[in-house]
Amino acid sequence: MANKLIGEMDLLKRISNIFAARNIITAKDALSMTEFELMELLDVGMKEIQSAVRLISEAASPPCQSARSLLEQKVENEYLLGHLPTHLKGLDSALCGGIPFGVLTELVGPPGIGKSQFCMKLALSASFPKAYGGLDGRVIYIDVESKFSSRRVIEMGLKSFPEVFHLEGMAQEMAGRILVLRPTSLSDFTESIQELKESILKNQVKLLVIDSMTALLSGENKPGAQRQQHQLGWHISFLKSLAEFARIPIVVTNQVRSQNRDETSQYSFQAKLKDGFEEHTRTYDSHLVAALGINWAHAVTIRLVLESKSGQRIIKVAKSPMSPPLAFPFHITSEGISLLSDDGAELKGRGINNIHARGHSDMINFNGDCS
């Protein structure tokens, strides 16, 4: 707006010509001078200068917008940027279409809760034909803990989309679009992701999954933790830039750890407690928090928490710029993760980031791991 030409504004022709004759061409040229300097330079009366400055300011300034209109534009832009549908109606609605392109999305939860099941279903969705709500692309699946199961992916496809997967050769084609890498060390993983940038563009990759980042850094609380935290910082920066550069969703799973009784620090997106301390309840699961630390927590754009309370699995939108904190009950069937209700319950206070792991011993294995 500052470079808008004065000659294109609704000034009097005589005044516009005087500005041009003195080589004052843009709004920036005019507004960087005081009214007295303009009056002296242009040899024009103060009233005419004030009128001209007012018109130039109005033409160069962006129009006023309400908070509501800005939010509507942001929502529209989110849709235009693209999303990977989860095929969970309530969750997709809360996330404005699904897992967003160009950012990091994190799945946090205890072992056996369904994180890998979620990732495999996303991999299936990304490789699925566009006509059926997929992205019709390839997937790079970094399977650190060897939990990926092609049999499970095919089973999900056959149960969820029978009209497509029963077509001859379709199951094998979909499974063939998912490239599984199994790094054996952090250095092996680092080398792999550095080689991904070019291949992602060449091979029409539409999703990168890392399951799990925590396993690669499992020794962070042992001697040398400071060095590993430094390495994590490098990986955070690289993965964020890779997501933005390739405009694809990057989904990373994170595990949980026990919270110390004297641990009082909280993430900035968590609700503050009256006394600054976590309330200690009688059950052990009240002391579970996401691993990897606060720098990682701030790096992810979307955080989905998977937990279990009294035998009921729940997926929570704990962090999202486009949604309030919501909780959806779910279960795992042969089709994969399914919501029991598309209406999310809004969360407040400590319930947003508390992670529970009670009563999920009824986990079902479908030819693979349910974690």
From TrEMBL:
Location of the RecA family profile domain:
80-256
Matching CDD domains, A to Z?
A: Rad51B
Q: Does the keyword Nucleus apply?
A: yes
Q: What is its main location?
A: nucleus
What compartments host this protein? Nucleus
* One GO term of the biological process aspect: double-strand break repair via homologous recombination
Q: Which SMART domains match?
A: AAA (SM00382)
Top-rank taxon, per record = Eukaryota
Q: Which molecular function GO terms apply here?
A: ATP binding; ATP-dependent DNA damage sensor activity; double-stranded DNA binding; four-way junction DNA binding; single-stranded DNA binding
Q: Which GO terms describe its cellular component?
A: Rad51B-Rad51C-Rad51D-XRCC2 complex; replication fork
What Pfam families has UniProt attached to this entry?
A: HHH_XRCC3_RpoA, Rad51
The record's keywords, sorted A to Z, are: ATP-binding, DNA damage, DNA recombination, DNA repair, DNA-binding, Nucleotide-binding, Nucleus
The family note in this entry says:
Belongs to the RecA family. RAD51 subfamily.
PANTHER family, per the entry: DNA REPAIR PROTEIN RAD51 HOMOLOG 2
What name goes with this protein?
RecA family profile 1 domain-containing protein
Please report the organism this UniProt entry assigns to the protein. Answer: Brassica oleracea var. oleracea
Organism phylogeny? Eukaryota, Viridiplantae, Streptophyta, Embryophyta, Tracheophyta
